[in-house]
Amino acid sequence: MTTFIITWEAGFCRSPHIFTLLGRISAPLFLFAMAEGFSHTHDRKAYLKRLYIASVLMSVGNGLVNAFLPHPGGAMVINGMFATLFLVGLYIWAIELLIEGGKERKWKKAGAALVMLLVPVFSGIAVILFMGNMAELSPVGRIAFQAMYTLIPSPVFVEGSVFWVVLGIGFYFLRNKKIGLSVFYVLMSGFFFFSAAGAGLTYENLFILNDQWFMILSLPFILLYNDQRGRKMKYFFYVYYPLHVYLLVILARIVA
């Protein structure tokens, strides 16, 4: 997604925000494609390994861009869709293992599933505790904080936060039920719209401050999927996603 504009020293920049709105449409498509791909892959470990490595590399890349190509308006690059997709896949696998372990009374399998579910949560809690004491941290402590934030993705801090993780999981378990998937998606979108509407039906509120509901426009594209495999482009997303983000960052720096 192209949601790299997050904070400004004063006011709002409306024109570039069109990229954020486009991101609201594209993010669910990424999640849907990942859920479908995860259901068909023959090697889940390799699939998750690729996403994890990509998430770490992009986190490092974001840090380098923010350090060496700072935006004069204060905007920062925070894109991290790979980490979100990694957690979606990890949680899907964990949920299935937990169900299987319970049915088969294989408690080791169920225990492994719980570890998969809880480690990212505990990582998020640790990051929150670190953030509350950043001023008191030593240089080593700051390095440890950054390492934990980068190496152990948390559903709280990945792009889209818990919401996109839940959305991706829902796509997976409803992938063969178009009506159920549609209802689920409309409800998720509606929740954000009515939450936003409570603060006022203004352009600034609905399209700048609280625009997550805009994702509803991607539903037709999701429903058009015919369950057929398209052209084999295994590594396309791993190249396209960071490349388009950083090219847009460079463009934004030039324009600024």
UniProtKB/TrEMBL annotation:
It holds the Pfam family TraX. It comes from the Bacteria. The keyword Protein biosynthesis does not apply. The chain crosses the membrane at residues 51-69, 75-99, 111-132, 152-174, 181-201, 207-225, 237-255. Keywords: Membrane, Transmembrane, Transmembrane helix. The keyword Mitochondrion does not apply. InterPro entries: TraX (IPR008875). This is TraX family protein.
